[in-house]
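Annotated sample (chain length 338).
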Amino acid sequence: MVERYFRKHIQGLKPYSTARDEYSGPPGVFMDANENPFGQGLNRYPDPRQLTLRNALARLKGVNEAAVFVGSGSDEIIDLLIRLFCEPGKDSVLILPPTYGMYEVASAAHDVKVEKILLAPDFQPDVEKILKSEAKLLFLCSPNNPTGNLINPEIVEAILKGFNGIVAIDEAYIDFSVGDTSIGLLDKYHNLIVLQTFSKAFGLAAVRVGLAFAAPAIIAAFDRIKLPYNLGDLSARAALRAIERKDKKAKQVQAIVRYRNALAAQLGRLPCVDKVFPSDANFLLVRFVDARTTFDHLIARGIIVRDRSGQPLLGGCLRISVGTAQENRKLIEALKLL
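Output written by the structure step:
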């Protein structure tokens, strides 16, 4: 049972309960939460479990609603994962650098040791080393940030089969990839948690809506330890509208992938560029002849990219998000001046 991975005290934890949790009937006279009875439609606290949004996501992803969690961005869910599974000062989290920096920051904030196993030169995980780890929780980013590559599905399954802990697969960029989501593996591997987000393909970074798909027991545990009203009603409404307009999202993803491929080709022809790495995301990892000079040159022209040259395996590399056609032209024009 997946509960064996939980921190022991979590299993018996009694969550904070609101009257909204205790009442499930038709709209009533709410006199429970000390709210202002007047207002412009925002005077009431939101549904603490955002059931309307969860049900819409369950239909969209083809899963049971009991397998869906909604949080304030993926960062909240990362934090919840560490709180649920890792004892401070005792357990460890395994990360595979170079990867998303919040895994390490969130772990450190909870006094949880961070174990690191570098990706191979092709940016794929070293399965043999991973399976020897005694870490309680593994973060696997696919497509990986900042390298942009999809993790080989066979490697993913090998890890799920052999890793003696929880595997959290962060799929923030999966919509830009030709690969399939790992959500379909949830019934097969109960130690799997899949993270997704509305920040990237849906274009809702400002509203902070993150998603987790997992065994119902894990979702129920999230609900016990999360903050009572962890997602605002405006954010939930924005996410619901985005689901209703998923055709618009699909067209934008197609455009971004097209721009990404064109931008990669243009960058590859510049003398200041040493290598453009293949990408399954909405960004490109690019190795420059002189990354620091390039970074400063772009900043001086109001173009902000991310310097990743200090990360393992990424010497001389900048990460460049795919912009609009006009923004991409501005980038290329600036680089031609080097």
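Annotation: The chain has two domains: 2-244, 247-336.
Annotation: DSSP finds twelve helices and eleven strands in the chain.
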